[in-house]
Design goal:
This protein is mostly beta strands. It has no helices and eleven strands. The strands form two sheets. Strands 2, 4, 5, 6, 9, 10 and 11 form a seven-stranded mixed sheet that branches. A four-stranded antiparallel sheet has the order 1-3-8-7, with no helix packed on it.
């Protein structure tokens, strides 16, 4: 079965850190452009970070540059999002996503063909 399973969401204080994980099954992770999106309450889903082994492309949303790091462990078929210096506005449901074969970063949410189930990240004091 082709799917993602996410983990690592939690409640964290401002300035704290979290690492999200997304395990892929049914396909080879490094073959595709893959990324993290998030949806905050009352807002549209936005792409946070994206990575593609093809041409070694990595992209980040301006709001998270310098704080978030996307990485991939091909041996474990796992995508990560390391989130540091978390802010209130990072509170959202986070989703991992896969674009169709041949796509590059950044990924359009309209083209995503596999979504993770979503995981809650709450930044609160």
């Amino acid at each position: 079965q082709v799917q993602f399973v996410e983990s690592g969401g939690d409640l964290v204080q401002p300035g704290g850190s979290l690492r999200l994980s997304c395990v892929a099954s049914g396909f080879t992770l490094k073959t595709y452009a893959i990324g993290w999106f998030r949806r905050a309450p009352g807002k549209e889903r936005e792409q946070v970070a994206c990575t593609s082994a093809r041409f070694s492309i990595t992209t980040y949303a301006e709001a998270v540059k310098g704080r978030f790091t996307i990485s991939r462990d091909d041996a474990k078929e796992t995508l990560y999002l390391q989130m540091n210096s978390l802010k209130f506005e990072d509170t959202a449901v986070y989703y991992c996503a896969r674009a169709p074969y041949g796509s590059l970063c950044p990924i359009s949410p309209k083209t995503v063909n596999i979504w993770g189930q979503g995981i809650q990240v709450t930044v609160s004091s």
